[in-house]
Amino acid sequence: MTVLRGPAVLADDVLADAVVRLEGGRVVEVRPARSGDPAAAGTLLPGLVDVHCHGGGGASFATDDPDEADAAAGFHLDRGTTTVVASLVTDGPGTLLAQCRLLAGLCGDGGPVAGIHLEGPFLSPARRGAHPAHLLLPPDPAVLAGLLAAGAGHVRHVTLAPELPGYAACAALVRGAGAVVALGHSDADHATAAAAFAAGAGSATHLFNAMRPWGHRDSSVASAALQAAAGHAAVVELVADGIHVDAGTVAAVLALVPGRVALVSDAVPPAGLPDGDHVLGAVGIQVRDGVARTVDGAVAGGSGALLDVLRFAVQQAGVPLPVAAAAASRVPAALLGLDRSSGAGRLAPGARADVLVVDDDLRPVQVWRAGRRHR
User: Fold this and answer.
1) What residue numbers bound the domain in which 66 lies?
2) Which has the closest alpha carbon to 333: 279, 265, 262?
3) Is pLDDT at 237 greater than 80 in this prediction?
4) Rounded to an integer, what distance in angstroms lies between the CA atom of residue 327 and that of residue 347?
5) For the residues of 172-236, what is the DSSP string, one character each?
6) How far apart are CA 241 and CA 252, in angstroms?
7) Looking at 266, 308, 339, 354, which residue is catalytic?
8) Model pTM score
9) Could you tell me if 247 and 170 lie in one domain?
10) What's the total number of domains in the chain?
11) Does the annotation mark 361 as catalytic?
12) CA-wise closest residue to 158 among 68, 241, 90, 84
């Protein structure tokens, strides 16, 4: 049995002085502290849930080496992300098949990876971002069916551009597999994206990035996604790092659609490393002044862990800690059903014993996953 004490961030508030008791890999008690309890360890948060992550610490999820994928998950676990979904970038179908098979073997039964995210290859060439143009494909049900099969039930969400021919058939395949259709890397207008959300798309990939800019006379996936989120029909991803979106945008989105925002890291393999030259899938990327870009200047993912994103939201954008913590745990877990399958994303009796203890500056002090201490 483990007993942790400190301010505890619960569903919508902070219990100023709480005790959280862990036993058998589960949270068994959350209560106000009393005389005789251990000293406070720090502020207690639910373990973070990152549903869009490509790697970190020099290791990639887009690999043929299970040890490398395990190292990428370990990099984020050490920084408080107790549940990570491995994101794959656009590559050749054969390469993606092999990567899906490898990652599927790391999922389930307490494995280091909680699921797979296919970010490509069915994306708009006009909004490809860091994805290589020559490897993009129009939505192809046969190719997608093979990738879903290779994922063996562990593909949790798939990013698609709804304006492309073949979208409807591929979206139906994704939903039929029990996964979430995410709209992104898209040049769609508002009407096209709104129709896709009405037909069952459930999220937007890194809102505002790699999609048509939202102008007041030219609306886009961004406007349709926020409308769907306001109607509790979708969740929007936000890379709240001051690079993908600024502090004002972070504050506005979390105020406009509270409870419907999933903070994500979009971390790439060089996250946490000094400036240098690296690769993301089949693309070379450069990290300069802590920002990852392709050689032609496109932002190529995040350079930190999800806790860094949460810290920016709180300290730079002024988002209340309970709101930011929910957006980095409970909301993404519920989006992909990880709250049901593993009990992730909550600090409550019955939940998996995933706890992140942070100091006053929101830096990690302790990390517990399924009741085991990893930091």
Assistant:
1) 48-342
2) 262
3) yes
4) 14
5) HHHHHTT-EEEE-SB--BHHHHHHHHHTT--EESSTTTTB---BTTB-BHHHHHHHHHHTTS-EE
6) 14
7) 266
8) 0.96
9) yes
10) 2
11) no
12) 90
